[in-house]
Amino acid sequence: ISRNLVVHKKEGPIQVSATLLLLQNSEGHSAGMVCVYNNITEIQRLQRARAWREVARRIAHEIKNPLTPIQLSAERIHRKYAGEVSDDVALQQSTQTIINEVQHLKRMVSEFSNFAKIPESNPQMSNLNQIINEALQLYHENMPARISLTTELSETLPQLPLDGEQIRRVVINLVDNAISSIEKKGALSRIFRQGQIIVRTRHVSDLNIISMDVEDNGTGIAPEISDDLFEPYTTTKEHGTGLGLTIVSQTISDHNGFTRFRNLDTGGVCFTIELPVT
Q1: How far is Cα 148 from Cα 218, in angstroms, rounded to an integer?
Q2: Where do the DSSP E strands lie in the chain?
Q3: Residues 198-221: pLDDT tens digits?
Q4: What is the homologous superfamily of the domain 124-276 according to CATH?
Q5: Are 241 and 233 in contact (CB under 8 A)?
Q6: By the 8 A CB rule, do 133 and 180 touch?
Q7: Do the strands 30-39 and 12-24 form a parallel or antiparallel pair, or are they unpaired?
Q8: What is the pTM of this model?
Q9: I need a surface site. Which of 135, 140, 196, 200 has the fewest CB within 10 A?
Q10: Quick one: the chain helix, strand, coil %, rounded to 5?
């Protein structure tokens, strides 16, 4: 007898496959039963991700084709009728709204396409700290005011088989999310003064893993989305597609690692990436 169950743990629910087997002795008589439990949470998540990739591919294909004609038509209308209508300001605002929304849809389609075509990892022996530092260079001159970005990188990390470009995108995605969360908290609270993002690495030798944390003091993860956080299209951003963390989780899974998060007692959230040392 086999059944799939949901087991609720402190860290959150997990999907479990339970198989009940009847044991018999040498004479064919019943000698008891044994129940085998397998954690299939990751397997089911990957199956859902594959299904969502196909959905994203189809959505991107259907939406992409008409966008350019719509934008060109709006631009053409503005050029043709600018200065010839009684309410020129309304014409300008209306056509610009169309163009802006088309640009937003194009960005969304691009994310759909990227999600649907996540390339296979091409791992090379690499230093995780070096990849992190390269990714964080993007923020040295472009960090929003009142947000500090610091690193606590272990100097004794062993090299890992990593796809450098994919891991770089993981770091950027997590830091971008942290910035958005802090900015949202600043907009909601008049007393919030200083945003802080910490990126740290460490070698957990007894577990034979390397972990990377991206911690912030933003709004944290709302309870109503925590169970589905790594599922496609789960987002709290006004114009977000909800694919960023799905791509992060998929990329780390392709590296045989795990992605976790926990809300901090002091506010904010800490995302943890765990990668096996081979």
Answers
A1: 12
A2: 2-9, 12-24, 30-39, 124-126, 147-153, 160-162, 195-204, 209-216, 258-263, 269-276
A3: 999 999 999 999 999 999 998 888
A4: Histidine kinase-like ATPase, C-terminal domain (3.30.565.10)
A5: yes
A6: no
A7: antiparallel
A8: 0.63
A9: 140
A10: 45, 25, 30
